[in-house]
């Protein structure tokens, strides 16, 4: 899972990033309005944690940008503003949740997990498509009742392709989803081929057939 935290308080930003990284999220941070815009333009996330008061602009304007451009990321607002009017304004603009500072990181984590369940599995811990069952809480995968043992990168790849099923996804988009901003330092995207190859092999061994298809010159497509 890929998470973006837009928060100008450096200590809080670092605490959130470290906490979610320990929980096996790919977590990136932005400390200003401009950095937030750049991240949202360049990458796709599963969830965005968004402060309202930011250097250079309002977090609510970032939220408007997301929804205007029909980006599907879930958004949790974190703010010191605790009035009902502020909460209603954020939710009306398209936020999925609103958490007032100060808060415990464990509560934020619980809300992120709840949001992801609503996004991908209609509120359940389990995403079921065809003969596939993905437990979003335990991060396990089954096909036809048989467990498929995946690495973290293979699991992230599968979930990313499931959320983009029946669409062609480029190698660059896959690389950015798995490695985030570190992708800029990579010499090539050849590792994506290895992840796809390993995932296809493991799924085939459980009898699922050609789950991932190569679209030559463009990328990969999951048809299910």
TrEMBL record:
<keyword id="KW-0902">Two-component regulatory system</keyword>
<dbReference type="InterPro" id="IPR039420">
    <property type="entry name" value="WalR-like"/>
</dbReference>
<dbReference type="InterPro" id="IPR036388">
    <property type="entry name" value="WH-like_DNA-bd_sf"/>
</dbReference>
<keyword id="KW-0597">Phosphoprotein</keyword>
<dbReference type="GO" id="GO:0006355">
    <property type="term" value="P:regulation of DNA-templated transcription"/>
</dbReference>
<keyword id="KW-0805">Transcription regulation</keyword>
<keyword id="KW-0238">DNA-binding</keyword>
<protein>
    <submittedName>
        <fullName>Transcriptional regulatory protein BasR</fullName>
    </submittedName>
</protein>
<feature type="modified residue" description="4-aspartylphosphate">
    <location>
        <position position="51"/>
    </location>
</feature>
<feature type="DNA-binding region" description="OmpR/PhoB-type">
    <location>
        <begin position="124"/>
        <end position="224"/>
    </location>
</feature>
<keyword id="KW-0804">Transcription</keyword>
<dbReference type="GO" id="GO:0000156">
    <property type="term" value="F:phosphorelay response regulator activity"/>
</dbReference>
<dbReference type="InterPro" id="IPR001867">
    <property type="entry name" value="OmpR/PhoB-type_DNA-bd"/>
</dbReference>
<dbReference type="InterPro" id="IPR001789">
    <property type="entry name" value="Sig_transdc_resp-reg_receiver"/>
</dbReference>
<feature type="domain" description="OmpR/PhoB-type">
    <location>
        <begin position="124"/>
        <end position="224"/>
    </location>
</feature>
<dbReference type="InterPro" id="IPR011006">
    <property type="entry name" value="CheY-like_superfamily"/>
</dbReference>
<dbReference type="GO" id="GO:0005829">
    <property type="term" value="C:cytosol"/>
</dbReference>
<dbReference type="Pfam" id="PF00486">
    <property type="entry name" value="Trans_reg_C"/>
</dbReference>
<feature type="domain" description="Response regulatory">
    <location>
        <begin position="2"/>
        <end position="116"/>
    </location>
</feature>
<dbReference type="GO" id="GO:0000976">
    <property type="term" value="F:transcription cis-regulatory region binding"/>
</dbReference>
<dbReference type="GO" id="GO:0032993">
    <property type="term" value="C:protein-DNA complex"/>
</dbReference>
<dbReference type="Pfam" id="PF00072">
    <property type="entry name" value="Response_reg"/>
</dbReference>
């Amino acid at each position: 899972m890929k998470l973006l935290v837009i928060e100008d308080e450096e200590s809080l930003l670092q605490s959130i990033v470290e906490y979610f990284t320990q929980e096996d999220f790919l977590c990136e941070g932005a400390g200003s309005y401009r950095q937030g815009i750049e991240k949202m333009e360049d990458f796709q996330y599963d969830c965005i944690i968004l402060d309202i008061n930011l250097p250079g602009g309002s977090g609510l304007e970032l939220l408007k940008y997301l929804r205007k451009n029909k980006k599907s990321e879930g958004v949790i607002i974190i703010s010191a503003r605790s009035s009902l009017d502020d909460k209603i304004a954020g939710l009306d603009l398209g936020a999925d949740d609103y958490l007032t500072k100060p808060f415990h990181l464990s509560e934020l984590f619980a809300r992120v997990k709840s949001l992801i369940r609503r996004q991908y599995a209609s509120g359940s811990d389990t995403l079921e498509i065809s003969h596939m069952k993905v437990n979003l809480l335990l991060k396990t995968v089954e096909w036809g009742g048989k467990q498929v043992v995946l690495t973290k990168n293979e699991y992230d790849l599968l979930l990313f392709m499931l959320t983009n099923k029946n669409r062609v996804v480029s190698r660059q988009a896959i690389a950015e989803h798995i490695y985030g901003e570190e992708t800029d330092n990579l010499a090539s995207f050849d590792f994506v081929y290895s992840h796809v190859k390993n995932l296809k092999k493991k799924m085939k061994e459980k009898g699922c057939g050609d789950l991932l298809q190569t679209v030559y010159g463009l990328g990969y497509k999951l048809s299910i």
